[in-house]
Write a structure and sequence with these properties.
Order of helices and strands: HEHHEEHHEHEHEHHE
Strand order of the largest sheet: 6-5-4-7
Shape: elongated
Distance between the termini: 28 Å
Structural class: alpha+beta
Largest sheet: 4 strands, mixed
Radius of gyration: 17 Å
Strand content: 15-25%
Number of helices: 9
Length: about 190
């Protein structure tokens, strides 16, 4: 997604740290970034050495947070939000929305994040499967868009339609790169 990062894991780790100012243990960062704990430990050590993050030990846990004094914090956060932030922002924005059975990213952003070559995506497409109010889904999409600074489009598909193997839209989404998100905790 962003060729100037060493890896997608590094981008996801930065997203887990920069896009939420909460102090987090390394195990939470590993879970959010879907990365091995050893990778997270190594990346956090590099980031701390560079002054991007700070950490402190509390018992056996190492708690990490973004360093507010890091001079490139704002531009780095914007880059991370635009590249690796959509999955995080959508997951967080749709947390606790009643009726969501599945949350799927599709379209150009999903294609790029899953490794399909192409230009930088202009927006993020979200598919919500379940009995969800379209207006509630739009409100959540607006929240996600504000977090990442790019347009988030949402489509709501009732559960029965999603499992209809002949529905043209569903067949199209499933035939192309897509990313199913795990629901966030409320």
């Amino acid at each position: 997604m962003a060729p100037f990062f060493r890896s997608d894991a590094q981008g996801r780790i930065l997203a887990a740290i920069l896009l939420d100012a909460a102090e987090r243990p390394l195990t939470d960062i590993a879970s959010l970034a879907d990365a091995p704990l050893t990778t997270v430990q190594r990346e956090v050590t590099r980031l701390e050495t560079a002054g991007v993050v700070t950490s402190r030990k509390v018992g056996p846990a190492r708690l990490v947070t973004v360093n507010p004094a890091y001079p490139l914090r704002e531009p780095l956060t914007q880059i991370v939000a635009a590249t690796y932030g959509p999955a995080w922002a959508v997951r967080e924005a749709f947390a606790g929305l009643d009726g969501v059975e599945q949350l799927i990213l599709f379209g150009s952003w999903a294609a790029r994040i899953t490794g399909q070559p192409g230009g930088f995506p202009g927006d993020v497409d979200v598919l919500v499967v379940g009995a969800v109010s379209r207006m509630a889904a739009i409100d959540r999409a607006i929240t996600a868009a504000e977090r990442i600074g790019r347009e988030v489009n949402v489509v709501v598909v009732p559960t029965q339609r999603w499992y209809d193997a002949t529905d043209g839209f569903v067949v199209d989404v499933l035939s192309k790169p897509h990313l199913t998100l795990e629901p966030a905790d409320d």
